[in-house]
Predict the 3D structure of the following.
Amino acid sequence: KKKGAKRGKAEAAEPPVPSAFSVLDPTKPAFERQDNAVYQVGGSKLYPDPAAYPEIREYMGWRLKRNQKRLRRLDRAARTVQGAFRGFLAWRLAQRLREERAARYIQRVYRGWRGRLRFLERVRVLWAAQVLQRNYRGHVGRKAFLELRRRHAAAQHLQRVWRGKVARSIVLALIRRRNHAATLLQAVHRGNKARERVMVMRIRRDAAVEIQRVFRGHVGRGRARREEEKYLFSQSQSQGIEFGRQMLLEHRLHAARLQSEIAVLSQTKVQNEEAVEALLQEISEFEEGVATLEKEMHQLSQVETEAAGVLDEEARFELREQKMRLDREFGEMLEKIGERKERLQGLERKLAGLDRSRGEKEEELRALERKLVVLLEEQ
């Protein structure tokens, strides 16, 4: 019982073992006591619970920051160690991969060399077998070919003999048939040629008869027409002469009338030409007057511009009067020129009409002259 009581007291006095999370948590006091040799982790009064003592919360905040800084340093150191260890592992892995690649390369080269040796040996064996087979097959083939050629020669000789006999019989029969057919063709051809010759001779005879009949009819009709014309001419000769005289007289009268009309038209044309000349003379005189007026107007304008500040009111009034007079005269001249030009255009149209009428009359007169010549020849 005493031993059990002592063991119970010892167990009660033994501090609780913190977990891994409490050791790695900087907010727990066990974080900074894990490497403390004097004050081990357990129920210590030096590290009271902050929740039980609110007055030391500020102090615990500073400790919390310090513990966080320590945790970061430990974490950085752990990452450095892990990186170095992993780099070493990677280097070992790369070294092993290089060694494996070199081993595979050596194996590949060796296997290739062995394979080439085996291939060359197999090629030599195959070549020797092919040479033997080719020689043997050539010998057998030559023997078979010679035998086959002898058989072909014998068969060809037999076939040639038989074909010669058959061909001779066929040729003889063909010659007989061709001779018979040629005889028939010649007979038919000669008959056709004879019939064609007879038909041509008949057609020529009929054509000659028809041509002779037509020609004789034509000659007879011509002779009858000439006789009829002679009779009609003898009947109408006396009447035609009198009618021709009357037509000559009428044509002469018509020609005289046309000549008189042409003379009248010529006189009218001469008069119109004289009027045109007079109008042109007047227009030229008016144009000279217009040029003179323009020159005077220009002189007045020049005088007015040169003596703009010297002239008095009376002189300026006189200049204006002269300008107005020149303007009126200029307008009258232009009006007269326009009137003369209109009259000139009317005369030109009249002259064109006279020329056209005269040409028509002259053409009609020439036609009458030709008719008179024809009538005179007939008379």
Q: What stands out?
A: The two ends are 201 Å apart (CA to CA). The CA atoms of residues 242 and 379 lie 10 Å apart.
